[in-house]
Design goal:
This protein is α/β, with parallel strands linked by helices and 387 residues long. The protein has 13 helices and twelve strands. A seven-stranded mixed sheet has the order 1-7-6-5-4-2-3, sandwiched between helices. Strands 8-9-12-11-10 form a five-stranded mixed sheet, with helices on one face. Helix 4 links the parallel strand 2 and strand 3. Bound molecules: pyridoxal-5'-phosphate.
Length: 387
């Protein structure tokens, strides 16, 4: 298994955060200001307007960049803003090859917004096929989400990078690292050009912010992304930036606990008579378990499974849970359960959902940090009631 950097925990607490020079405050203040005083036109302390830059946001950008092993970070208004910024770099006629089981909102942007603006996306099962099977001379981006949402497919990042590096012009390899978090996966170290996060999820970890981030080592690429962000205004505000910065301090502790609970529940569900099949990258039965072992530092806190029966059985199960809350989103300290077909992935056409295997009995768990026995008993009781 890819080894995690030993100083990750220290970076999570300290990266990007310096005592405030005017007061010595150990915590980065919330710089709630739109503008900054200049001593002479163009003469200022590095900040002129908060759409362009803000000290609280900058601290967060440095923190996330450090955790991803990147030089440059941008903190955004949401994960979808990150998708949109990357797509704004393309031109009419350009083409994207994307993982088929991509987050529903990302797929919606590709299909319903960017296709209209002349950028077509081919959705491909990149676990079974190489990018070369779908690429055209106009392919400018390879869009990888791994593990995917909701089917937890694991895509071999190095394989896509090695193909991209042989092409001229070379397509960008983008990795949405939201599910793994930088604690469990380092796409830049595997050769990816850009990492995307919905910081709404594990990075913030407390279900009280919607935010996003982009990280890269390529200065030119960073300048282009910042130009687009500054032009369109998709920024993380100072209070949201501060909350995410605060959440990140406990990222390592939280991720360890999410994973311990997720692994135990995946093993429990795999043996449960009411469960048809469990998908968790840490299980030997997962089709890409070996790829996950090779490229991740751990397997994360998301578990997906198929219940036995029909939609009614899934509904009874979801209505009976008491510790797990039925809600969209993921990555918070509290356990959530989602019915992708009706909730998070409803924007994907029914035919495509059926082809992917997002069925009426598919359930996605975001396993929180509560007591394992409470979580297991909750699932067990609700599974009994689902019959
Ligand atoms: C994997 C993944 N990427 C991107 C997003 C979009 O993030 P946001 O909701 O912060 O815009 C989500 C949201 O659920 C997601 O799960």
């Amino acid at each position: 298994m890819e080894k995690r950097s030993s100083n990750f925990e220290t970076l999570a607490v300290h990266a990007g955060v310096k005592p405030d020079p005017s007061t010595g405050a150990i915590m980065t203040p919330i710089f709630a200001t739109s503008t900054y005083v200049q001593t002479s036109p163009g003469k200022h302390l590095g900040y002129d307007y908060s759409r362009t830059s803000n000290p609280t946001r900058k601290a967060l950008e440095e923190s996330i960049a450090a955790l991803e092993g990147g030089k440059f970070g941008l903190a955004l208004s949401s994960g979808c803003t990150g998708v949109d910024i990357l797509m704004h770099m393309l031109e009419v006629g350009d083409h994207v090859v994307s993982v088929d089981d991509v987050y529903g909102g990302t797929s919606r942007l590709f299909r319903t917004i960017w296709a209209k603006h002349g950028v077509q996306t081919t959705f491909a099962d990149l676990t079974a096929h190489s990018v070369s099977d779908f690429a055209t001379p106009k392919t400018k981006v390879i869009w990888i989400e791994t593990p995917t949402n909701p089917l937890l497919k694991v895509i071999d990042i190095e394989r896509a990078v090695s193909w991209a590096r042989k092409q001229n012009p070379r397509p960008l390899v983008v990795v949405d690292n939201t599910f793994a978090s930088p604690y469990f996966q380092s796409p830049l170290a595997l050769g990816a050009d850009v990492v995307l996060h919905s910081t709404t999820k594990y990075l913030n970890g407390h279900s009280d912010v919607v935010g996003g981030a982009l990280v890269t080592n390529d200065e030119e690429l960073f300048k282009k992304m910042h130009h687009i962000q500054n032009s369109m205004g998709g920024i993380s505000g100072p209070f949201d930036s501060w909350l995410v910065l605060r959440g990140i301090k406990t990222l390592a502790l939280r991720m360890k606990r999410h994973e311990e609970n997720a692994m135990a529940l995946a093993q429990f569900l795999e043996k449960h008579p009411q469960v048809e099949k469990v998908l968790y990258p840490g299980l030997k039965s997962h089709p890409q378990h070996e790829v996950a072992k090779k490229q991740m530092h751990g397997f994360g806190g998301m578990v997906t499974f198929f219940l036995k029966g029909k939609l009614e059985n899934a509904q009874r199960f979801l209505e009976s849970l008491e510790v797990f809350s039925l809600a969209e989103s993921l990555g918070g300290v509290e356990s959530l359960v989602d019915h992708p077909a009706i909730m998070t992935h409803a924007s994907i056409p029914a035919e495509t959902r059926a082809k992917l295997g997002i069925t009426d009995t598919l359930v996605r768990l975001s396993v929180g940090i509560e007591s394992l026995s409470d979580l297991q008993n909750d699932l067990d009781k609700a599974l009994q009631k689902s019959k």
